[in-house]
Design goal:
The protein has six helices and 23 strands. The protein is mainly beta. It folds into two domains: 9-224, Jelly Rolls; 232-311, Jelly Rolls (Sandwich). The protein has a seven-stranded antiparallel beta sheet. Strands 15-16-23-18-21 form a five-stranded antiparallel beta sheet, with no helix packed on it. A hairpin with a 2-residue loop joins β3 and β4. The longest helix is centred in the middle third of the chain and has 10 residues, at 134-143. The two termini are 21 Å apart. The relative contact order is 0.19.
Length: 312
């Protein structure tokens, strides 16, 4: 099966920005989320390859699960990639684990990670808190002091952080980030800064479910990956659900496939060419592609930075 280019699905959000639209030279609709690789019912990316015209990524997975996902990968290990373009902070939120999500939402649990592509000076994100008990969280919500208990991480271009399910977190304002996570669309909001949409409506909070799934004591760490021009391959995270590698290349780099697991590739630098078999395709800055497990090896030609993810 060939490497798959997918159609991006854009979603407007209350916190959306226009940084990505300027990069991609498209009209700005203050879209906060751009689903790049998704086989979730909430956003099922159409496949752009001509030979699969009219099909979505989910269609191909159902038709050829082993060729697409790999001989060692079940559907619950599918990954989901999105670009998050935040003018304002996202809500203070938490995601459920697999067991809770299956029981209560008919969805998968969500562990995610963020790579920062753009960040204005002073930008920061939330990952972790100093709460010791859930009773302390309830009290802070009642008193409106939850922001005082959050762990803030200043971030810049090239920073990376992994967010396990259950961790209290929020992507901050003035950040463009690539999110790599599990195939879920379940988010529980603790706090949304009392903001309203253009109709004057607040977004719903999910206090009871948030308290059900929040885990205390998690303190994720930001991994700094300076853009120094030195060729490298670095494991950024190795969580239970997936692995993410950073690759800086000045010439060529080969992505090897063995039929057991699919991979995703995201270009965080200059345009590059991907060569496999007798074909070549290009991958622009911010673009991602899905590499089926049955694909032949991929040769990346050019100087760029890549993130390569694969399920566990």
């Amino acid at each position: 099966m060939k490497t798959l280019k997918l159609e991006t699905i854009y979603n407007q959000t209350i916190w959306g920005n226009d940084v990505l639209s300027k990069i991609r030279n498209r009209p700005s609709n203050m879209e906060g989320t751009a689903w790049e690789i998704s086989a979730h019912p909430s956003a099922d990316c159409p496949v752009l390859n001509k030979e699969y015209e009219g099909k979505t990524l989910t269609d191909l997975i159902k038709e050829n699960p082993i060729e697409t996902l790999g001989s060692e990968v079940k559907e619950d290990r599918m990954l989901r990639l999105a670009l998050l373009d935040a003018k304002e902070s996202l809500s203070i939120q938490v995601h459920p684990n697999e067991e809770y999500a299956q029981k209560n939402e008919n969805d998968h649990g969500k562990t995610e990670s963020w790579y920062v592509l753009r960040a204005e000076e002073g930008a920061k994100l939330v990952a972790g808190c100093d709460f010791k008990t859930k009773e302390e969280i309830k009290q802070a919500i009642d008193e409106g002091t939850i922001e005082e208990h959050l762990t803030y991480h200043p971030v810049k271009e090239g920073d990376f952080i992994a967010i396990p399910a259950g961790t209290l977190h929020a992507l901050g304002a003035n950040i463009l980030a690539l999110e790599i996570g599990t195939n879920s669309n379940t988010t529980y909001r603790f706090f949304d800064f009392n903001r309203v949409d253009d109709q004057g409506n607040t977004r719903p909070l999910h206090i009871e479910k948030s308290l059900d799934v929040v885990t205390l004591g998690e303190q994720p760490v930001v991994v700094s990956t300076p853009l120094d021009g030195i060729e490298k391959e670095k494991l950024l995270t190795n969580v239970e659900e997936f692995e993410v590698y950073l690759v800086d290349t000045n010439d060529t780099y080969t992505i090897k496939l063995d039929g057991t697991r699919f991979k995703t590739i995201s270009n965080l630098g200059e345009k590059v060419t991907l060569q496999y078999d007798d074909e070549e395709v290009t991958l622009d800055f911010t673009e991602s592609m899905f590499i089926p497990a049955s694909s032949s090896d991929i040769v990346v030609k050019g100087k760029t930075r890549l993130l390569i993810a694969q399920p566990k």
